[in-house]
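STRUCTURE:
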């Protein structure tokens, strides 16, 4: 095999390989404009996100795909209270606080779009947010969580 044929074969292979490894968003039909829009909202995209309290208050914007669950992790140094609310631009957004997972491994829930909860232990908690599978359709979009922590 000549070097020209060998070079052509490698080039063709690399082009096929590069085309097969395209971004998953492109395969799902998302456009560059969709990605830019989502980034401009500065919405968090991971499954487990840190809810950071400053002076007892926290705020976070989150992007959620259909049927995706989000977990907000926060830590308390002492027992106290948590009040939080989910808001979305779409008033019909099928979202709720599904459960609160406590440092001792127990859980409580489900809740609605608001939660007022006594935090019985110091430690790290997880707030599970997702769709109510018993009512409503799957939902995708950006939502916000505002929370207050106190004693």
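SEQUENCE:
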């Amino acid at each position: 095999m000549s070097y020209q044929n060998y070079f052509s074969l490698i080039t063709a292979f690399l082009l096929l390989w590069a085309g097969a490894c395209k971004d998953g968003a492109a395969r799902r039909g998302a456009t560059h404009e969709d990605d830019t829009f989502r980034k401009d909202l500065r919405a968090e995209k991971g499954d487990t996100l840190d809810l950071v309290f400053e002076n007892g208050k926290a705020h976070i914007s989150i992007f959620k795909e259909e049927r995706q669950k989000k977990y907000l992790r926060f830590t308390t140094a002492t027992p106290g209270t948590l009040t939080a609310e989910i808001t979305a631009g779409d008033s019909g957004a099928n979202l709720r606080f599904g459960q609160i997972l406590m440092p001792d491994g127990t859980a409580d829930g489900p809740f609605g779009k608001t939660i007022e909860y006594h935090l019985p232990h110091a430690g790290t908690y997880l707030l599970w947010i997702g769709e109510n599978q018993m009512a409503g359709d799957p939902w995708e979009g950006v939502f916000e969580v505002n929370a207050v922590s106190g004693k």
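REMARK: The two ends are 78 Å apart (CA to CA).
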